[in-house]
């Protein structure tokens, strides 16, 4: 039965014994073996009564089996909802409940906490650990690999990815088969990936970058990945001789540059280094070229849109820019007030339209209507400027957002928790420059009259309900927050004041 995403990414590799995943322990999983495993999981899902359109929330460590869950969801027509393992049970409960997920798959080590989450949100619970073991694998082992792929159209939902919001409430971005497939096709072509490529994959697989950009491209092209559990510069260096390309957030490149063994000789055979998810400093770009002779290719995207722009594969890769709109994708830089397109050279809000743009936010019609125009343009909230040659630079954000090591942190979510802490009158969370992560969160607190704040107790309280990467690395107390005439907190002044907090 037709299922455009499954047919393009998976079905055509079903009988192939070409390598797909090279694992650090020396094992290799072929495309065919991977698809067999995925189909067993597809049978396991079906045996649990799941039907096309059901949501499956997956909060497990990175493993080939975790990736097979994604393939299985596509084959059954389930909506894949991957979650960062760093999220606390409180955070996960929101996602699972909001999505109305039928099934939650978690690490067996957390099964007690997540049994409560599943019960509260009406989902069933299964487990999978970092090696792939758990009740899901046991269930799949009882099934064969014959599975009749569910019929889907290109407009059916394939994934629901939660992105935090400026109001503090996370929104589920609805991504259709077309959104994912069109972008995978566009990027494979733009970056010239073929079945001879081997991608060094050290990104997480619960975000667009590691899953839909990196993995979908390698599936579509029929190439292979060195599949590493996480970023470890030693491992990248060890496996680089087997690879042809690397994709990473800027931290990947700063950590490689900090490593003495990262040399021109090591990279001489490499075809491509790609960076995205956060701004790559022009200085990193320059240092990388000086060390290796390679110019990093920077691109720009969002969870809601997959990839929008890219520096050219052939042609000038310009440091400090995110390149030009990808084929089939339109980009406008607009006046934030009127929405009118601005001339080249003027700074405005970036808007994007194309087959990559999501269908809207899950069960949030008002939010969708305020960010997705009727004519199909999505208002990104990023501030950009386009030059005469069509290169876009992201110069800031209209939205209050911190990007730390490629993870998005919305200050509002943290401020709401800080404001609830004993003795806190109000708070503001800002991003301060951080050498390794680009920026990292700082909490600025104002105490209630006569209150003395216990900063350690506040940190402990936050750690109980917020993923660690969102917790402010520094808490400072001041007398009052700077405000403008309208009463709005002037975060730009706080950012200036605490610009050196992680460097001095
Ligand atoms: C880990 N920690 C962090 C981060 N990562 N803190 C702030 N920001 C982070 N990004 C904290 C942990 O909670 C822990 O804290 C401590 O750092 C060590 O954790 P560890 O796992 O060892 O960290 P790491 O290995 O150094 O990880 C840093 C990393 C990783 C390599 C930058 O975060 C990463 O792989 N980031 C990539 C994210 C990504 O894929 N983004 C794409 C989103 P404690 O010690 O207190 O417990 S998609 C997107 O943005 C769009 C679509 C796009 O354009 O791509
Ligand atoms: P996410 O919500 O995780 O999809 O993050 C998307 C955001 O990451 C975008 O709206 C941008 O603010 C930022 N981003 C992604 N790629 C780049 C880049 N190359 N340069 C600057 N910012 C980027």
How would you explain this protein's 3D organization?
With 504 residues, the protein is α/β, with parallel strands linked by helices. Among the domains are: 4-17 and 27-152, Rossmann fold; 191-295, Rossmann fold; 402-497, GMP Synthetase, Chain A, domain 3, CATH 3.30.300.30. Strand 13 and strand 14 form a beta hairpin. Helix 2 packs across helix 6 (135-141), helix 4 runs parallel beside helix 5 (111-121) and helix 7 (177-190) packs across helix 8 (208-221). The longest helix is centred in the first third of the chain and has 17 residues, at 31-47. The protein is globular. The mean pLDDT is 96. Adenosine monophosphate is lined by residues 163, 208, 276-279, 298, 300-303, 322, 380, 382, 394, 397, 403, 408.
Distance between the termini: 61 Å
What is the makeup of the main sheet? 9 strands, mixed
Q: What is the C-level CATH assignment of the domain at 4-17 and 27-152? A: Alpha Beta
CATH architecture assignment name of the domain at 4-17 and 27-152: 3-Layer(aba) Sandwich
The fraction of residues assigned to DSSP E strands is 15-25%
Proportion of residues in helical segments: 25-40%
CATH topology assignment of the domain at 4-17 and 27-152: Rossmann fold
Distinct small molecules bound, one entry per kind: methylmalonyl-coenzyme A, adenosine monophosphate
Question: Structural class of the secondary elements?
Answer: alpha/beta
Computed over alpha carbons, the radius of gyration is 23 Å
The number of E-state strands comes to: 25
Instruction: List unreliable stretches of 5+ residues.
Output: none
Question: Going across the major beta sheet, what is the strand order?
Answer: 2-1-10-9-11-12-13-14-15
Mean pLDDT reading: 96
* Count of alpha/pi helices: 16
Principal-axis shape equals: globular
């Amino acid at each position: 039965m037709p299922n455009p995403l499954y047919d393009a990414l998976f079905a055509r590799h079903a009988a192939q014994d070409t390598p797909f995943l090279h694992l650090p322990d020396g094992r290799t999983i072929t495309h065919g073996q991977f698809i067999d495993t995925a189909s067993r999981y597809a049978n396991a899902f079906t045996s649990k009564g799941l039907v096309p359109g059901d949501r499956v929330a997956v909060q497990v460590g990175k493993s080939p089996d975790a990736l097979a869950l994604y393939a299985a969801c596509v084959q059954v027509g389930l909506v894949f909802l991957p979650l960062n393992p760093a999220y606390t049970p409180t955070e996960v409960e929101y996602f699972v409940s909001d999505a109305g997920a039928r099934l939650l798959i978690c690490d067996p080590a957390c099964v007690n906490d997540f049994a409560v989450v599943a019960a509260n949100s009406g989902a069933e619970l299964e487990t999978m650990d970092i090696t792939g073991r758990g009740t899901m694998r046991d269930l799949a082992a009882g099934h064969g690999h014959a599975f009749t792929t569910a019929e889907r159209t290109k407009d059916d939902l394939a994934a629901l990815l939660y992105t935090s919001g400026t109001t503090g409430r996370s929104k589920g971005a609805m991504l259709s088969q077309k959104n994912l497939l069109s972008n995978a096709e566009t990027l494979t072509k733009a970056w010239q990936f073929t079945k001879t490529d081997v991608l060094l994959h050290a990104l997480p697989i619960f975000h667009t970058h590691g899953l839909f950009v990196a993995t979908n491209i390698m599936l579509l092209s029929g190439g292979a990945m060195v599949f590493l559990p996480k970023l470890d510069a030693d491992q990248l260096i060890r496996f680089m001789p087997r690879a042809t390309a690397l994709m990473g957030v800027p931290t990947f490149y700063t950590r490689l540059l900090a490593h003495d063994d990262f040399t021109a000789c090591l990279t001489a055979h490499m075809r491509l280094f790609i960076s995205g998810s956060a701004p790559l400093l022009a200085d990193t770009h320059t240092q990388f070229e000086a060390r290796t002779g390679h110019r990093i290719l920077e691109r720009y995207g969002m969870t809601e849109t997959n990839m929008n722009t890219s520096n050219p594969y052939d042609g000038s890769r310009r440091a400090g820019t995110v390149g030009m709109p990808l084929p089939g994708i339109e980009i406008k830089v607009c006046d934030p007030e009127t929405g009118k397109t601005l001339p080249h050279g003027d700074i405005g809000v970036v808007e994007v339209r194309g087959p990559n743009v999501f269908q809207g936010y899950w069960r949030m019609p008002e939010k969708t209507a305020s960010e997705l125009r009727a004519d199909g343009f999505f208002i990104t909230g990023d501030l950009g400027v386009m030059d005469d040659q069509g290169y876009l630079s992201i110069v800031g954000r209209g939205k209050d957002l911190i990007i730390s090591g490629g993870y998005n942190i919305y200050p509002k979510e943290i401020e709401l928790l800080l404001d609830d802490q004993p003795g806190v009158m109000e708070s503001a969370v800002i991003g301060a420059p951080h050498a390794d992560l680009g920026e990292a969160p700082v909490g600025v607190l104002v105490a209630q009259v006569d209150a003395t704040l216990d900063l350690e107790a506040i940190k402990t309280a936050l750690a109980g309900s917020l993923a660690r990467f969102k917790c402010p690395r520094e808490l400072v107390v001041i007398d009052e927050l700077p405000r403008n005439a309208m009463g709005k907190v002037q975060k730009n002044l706080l950012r200036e004041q605490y610009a050196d907090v992680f460097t001095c």
